[in-house]
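ARCHIVE RECORD
Type: protein–small molecule complex
Small molecule: FE3-S4 cluster
Source of inputs: curated submission
Record status: active
Notes field left blank by submitter.
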Amino acid sequence: GIDPNFDSNREQVGTENGVDVWGPVDPPEKLGIHGTHVAVDYDICIADGACLENCPVDVFTWVDTPDHPESERKVEPTYEDQCIDCMLCVDICPVDAIDVDAS
Ligand code: SF4
Ligand code: F3S
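STRUCTURE (tokenized, with ligand):
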């Protein structure tokens, strides 16, 4: 699953769609972690979609990631500033791709 200490163990390498991206990034195979308060490890996400479908405040949007080995789309935590820390997405993701820093 996602490293919950990614913000100390990784470098922020830029932003995409308004959210932080934490490296290493080497597209199309390595896409890093997207977001900070709500963080999605793009290299683990398999596009299950349960997070996006069930988030009560619609934090996530789909983005296309052609030629990534795990899935051809991922969820961007585009509206992470609206997160209410319910932890549903963390609990429901089948591959533990999401970390929410509720502290
Ligand atoms: Fe949405 Fe809850 Fe996940 Fe925040 S913790 S992104 S509100 S499902
Ligand atoms: Fe990806 Fe997990 Fe959501 S696989 S689409 S982060 S439920």
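CURATOR ANNOTATION: Residues 40, 45-51, 75, 92-93, 95, 97-98 surround FE3-S4 cluster (ligand 2) (CB under 6 Å).
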